[in-house]
């Protein structure tokens, strides 16, 4: 049974990769568009420093999630629970960060999907990623509740496959952000091409 | 034929032991035994029946279109209604008939063919079906929710993405409906892939599984690559439509060409998604009715893998007229022509299988032979379109319509009919009537070729697709009338088919376990199979376990045939 859970989740996230690839390519296609000039865009509206902090939260949550799985396999339910709580908190911190970022962009920069190509491609990409993180948080929370209500089910590292499958999903949403953060945020440090060519 | 008991290692990957019996139609005939079911056979049947209903709807839409086109300057339906009809016809046939029907057959037969007692995730499987059903209903709800989608099944932006360019809310229904069915399809693909990889009977290696299983395996991979691209594309369209974003809005710097690339990077693999399981059915049926093992098992499997890779790099041949530039045109022409090679290998293999065989002209075999001819014609016109100068001339004419109907109707639909006649006895325990089957077959062949053969000529004459009427040019009326008459003959063939199912379910001959004397594992169990598919799975030493069982002195593996056991 354990193999089937892990295999199914691996196949599923491989498929999800295609979904995000299309959205990332769309963002890259429009990131330097002249139509964004003079409007809020990736070069003048993103707070890279703050986002970097919340990104680190998400990256670290992958580590804590791995530690959670290790504790579960060792049969240490208490440690497992603690690492799970920490993972959920770190994931929630990321979502909080994304929410404040959106709030700032909408209320201060007046950036909505309708504003320009940046708003369009930025919100769809980070939005779908945030949606996936939220789904992951819900699943992790269910797992956390189960550690209290069905402790026996997980005794001695039982159901390692199911636990591992959830973990794979969480690593996946983390890995997607490993691509998104440099593509959307760090790459913007290079500045727009229209600045160089003097348009 | 007796099935000898086999000893099985303790932890054989065969049976996911059920703690309680699953809801099952023969236990309780109430509706709840279907709605609550997680049995892969019942869910397969529900897929098949649902698609049959959608097939009748899509067919009705086609007949109304043919009625409109039966005479020049006709006024059966308004131009707006005609747009809705061809959009719904295409969308229905692709997303609500062919794909889910092939999935339905796969969900029913893959576990049986690999000697498993259930599918990998039974509950997830049920979820997939219900998500698919409601996605389809959502699409059809557009008719009462303000008008059906009307931008064509491939919904080119900005026509589809800008609300100002469409007359109603239909394209939003299209987007949400297809997203929903797409999620259901992905679930089925994951399920089938894991089932094939982890639940095969001992001895049934990937070099021995029936070719139908191979094709479903490959098809699932292709679904997992293609459907997410469609989902992302639809998400962008919905973003544009509902939030007035600018992905495909040229006035705000957006690129409609991005839509075409994103859509066809799904759309061309999709073409193969709609044919792979049909190829698998043909590969099962032709050997049985020629009484010979399939010729070139490994070649067929390998050619299919080649097609998976090639089909992901040919999408540009749908865009020759979009102005991609000469270098890209050349690249896509070459890659598209290359794909004819593995496809040709398959056709040669099926033909070679019949060589020297004792051909039994049963209804499934007749449909398979018609498939071979018609699919080859559709394939050849496909090679013509791969050459971009030809494409420039013929694009968006009735020649395209004729081409893909030869592949999808003359090919896939005929294979599906072959598969239905072949496996109906296993699913229901009753034979479909051969006599009515002959009527069905000949009406279908005549009706199909009447309808679509003349459309090649109309395309050459320059008749554009998707235009609701035409002027009275020389021969246009005659050729269109032939096509319309043909389509109604085809409609009668479908009614005969439905009548055959109806009457055979009530009065059909009892089938027995293995009416065709076939060799694959699904025929080793009862018809219909019980809740647990198998009491005992016969030992597997090759590709034809039931042949080996009935010919103990002449088993395939004794001649070095039948595939390696590792």
What would your notes on this structure say?
The complex is a heterodimer of chains A (199) and B (566). Chain A has helices at residues 2-30, 48-73, 77-107, 117-149, 160-185, 193-197. Chain A has 199 residues and is mainly α. Chain A has a single domain, classed as Four Helix Bundle (Hemerythrin (Met), subunit A) (Up-down Bundle), CATH 1.20.120.80. The N and C termini of chain A lie far apart (61 Å). The mean pLDDT of chain A is 93. Helices cover 63% and strands 0% of the residues of chain B. Chain B has helices at 32-35, 40-69, 79-113, 122-141, 170-198, 211-243, 256-273, 276-290, 297-311, 326-338, 340-354, 363-386, 388-394, 398-428, 434-460, 476-507, 545-550. Mean pLDDT of chain B is 91; it is low at 1-20. Chain B has a single domain (43-559), classed as Cytochrome c oxidase-like, subunit I domain (Cytochrome C Oxidase, Chain A, Up-down Bundle). Chain B is an all-alpha fold and 566 residues long. Chain B has 17 helices and no strands. Chain A binds chain B through residues 1, 3-4, 7-8, 11-12, 14-20, 22-23, 26, 29-30, 33-36, 112-114, 116-117, 119-121, 123-124, 128, and chain B through 16, 120-121, 186, 189-191, 193-194, 197-198, 224-229, 231-233, 235-236, 239-240, 243-247, 252-255, 258, 262, 265.
Structural class of chain B: mainly alpha
Name of the top-level CATH class of chain B: Mainly Alpha
Multimer state: heterodimer
Overall pLDDT of chain A: 93
Structure summarized in a few sentences:
Chain A is mainly α and 199 residues long. Chain A is elongated and about 60 Å long.
